[in-house]
Specification:
Helices cover 33% and strands 27% of the residues. It has 405 residues and is of the alpha/beta class. The mean pLDDT is 96.
């Protein structure tokens, strides 16, 4: 058997670490943001198709469901409870094998069911019968199952179905951690039980200038859970205090927190919704316009613009390499002493085994007092080990151990 060619390159990165840069920007779109809804549905459909393919045929057949569009509806929210007068329209698109040895596989039924189940969990106040229309236009494909199994035996390591790259980095900065953890807390089950008026459409933007951090939160409120302006303002204060607690747990820098800054009480303007998402009122969403696989949008960092959500977990490097890069970076940061920052970029070449990338670039900023020479070998070994076990990513995805947005 020929030796695997991993093309791993470990080098020193000469740049100012993010924590030492004067300006840092970080964003997270919460699970109820229209772009996150699109990502979440696309991924839920892919995972549902994958599991059903395995259940019926013992193998994941080809599919990509990364073309979901959320078209905003129209609503009239008001304190005490408003109404949605035009439903949100959700288009499921992409490709999936529908004919297997002349047998029809229920692509659309599986996809629509997965989308509905995801929405039921992700947006609590969304009435699936009246507030949303789901339309599956996923394109068809056919396959000879014997041929698929024979190909899998010949190539136990899947071949890349695209020339693309993934990017990951570690560790998170203080600002990144605050932004991420703030949204996770505000959208947690525990917080929702205490403050059911807080919807799922929560966007958190972080700006650090030197040693001062501004956290701006846009949180959609659910009108049926708020009697009037006084209760609304009380919930805003609860959001503020929760975010303050997150910030104090992660930094000693000065942190300013702002909640729903477009409110204008004198004009009766408040961020209230019927469903908890702005998708009810004309805000649209698309796959890939939101968070990267680590859950953040980070213009101070290396990023891939590839949409991971909805891509198949077998051979699409746009998904696999982004997740793999993040896992490698995390392990290097956690397991090797002396790493200030690490960036991982992995590039595929279409038609080549996914465990043999065209390049696996590892760039390290050493901590003061450490040299690349002491970090190079263990970083190489961690990268090589992950590439050798790359099919583990597929299993982790289907076990819901990895998020893609």
């Amino acid at each position: 058997m020929a030796e695997k060619v991993r093309n791993i390159v470990v080098e020193e990165l000469v740049r100012t670490p993010v924590e030492m840069q004067k300006v840092e920007l970080v964003e997270r779109k919460g699970i109820g943001h229209p772009d996150s809804i699109a990502d979440g549905i696309a991924e839920a459909v892919s995972r549902a198709l994958s599991r059903e393919y395995i259940k019926r045929y013992g193998i994941i057949l080809h599919h990509n469901t990364d073309q979901v569009e959320v078209v905003g509806g129209k609503a009239y929210p008001r304190f005490g409870g408003g109404e949605v007068i035009k439903p949100i329209y959700i288009l499921l698109s992409g490709r999936a094998v529908e004919i297997v040895d002349r047998e029809i596989f229920p692509v659309h039924e599986v996809a629509i069911k997965a989308a509905r189940e995801y929405l039921r969990k992700a947006v609590r106040h969304l009435d699936l019968e009246n507030h949303v229309v789901i339309d599956s236009r996923i394109g068809q494909g056919s396959v000879d199952l014997v041929g698929v199994f024979n190909k899998a035996k010949e190539n136990p390591i899947p071949l890349a179905n695209d020339t693309s790259f993934g990017v990951g980095y570690a560790p998170l900065s203080e600002t990144e951690r605050i932004v991420y953890e703030t949204e996770k807390l505000l959208n947690s089950d525990e917080f929702k039980r205490k403050y059911p008026a807080v919807g799922e459409d929560i966007k958190v933007m972080g700006l650090r200038r030197g040693d001062e951090i501004d956290i701006t939160i846009a949180a959609a409120m659910v009108d049926s859970e708020v009697d009037g302006p006084d209760e609304y303002m009380a919930v805003k204060e609860a959001i503020y205090e929760a975010a303050r607690g997150v910030a104090e747990a992660h930094t000693e820098r000065k942190v300013n927190i702002y909640v729903n800054t477009a409110d204008d009480p004198e004009k009766g303007i408040y961020y209230i919704t019927v469903t908890g998402t702005s998708a009810e009122a004309g805000d649209d969403g698309s796959v890939g316009r939101g968070n990267r696989v680590n859950g953040l949008i980070t213009p101070n960092r290396h990023m891939s613009m590839e949409a991971a959500a909805g891509k198949n977990p077998v051979s699409h490097v746009g998904k696999i390499y982004n997740l793999l890069s993040m896992l490698i970076a995390n392990d290097i940061d956690e397991q090797i002493e002396g790493v200030e920052e690490v960036y991982v970029r992995i590039l595929s070449q279409i038609g080549k085994p996914i465990d043999e990338p065209l390049v696996a670039s590892v760039q390290i900023i050493p901590k003061k007092g450490y040299s690349l020479e002491t970090l190079q070998k263990p970083a190489y070994e961690i990268t090589d080990a992950w590439l050798a076990d790359i099919t583990k990513i597929q299993k982790m995805i289907l076990e819901d151990k990895l998020n893609v947005f």
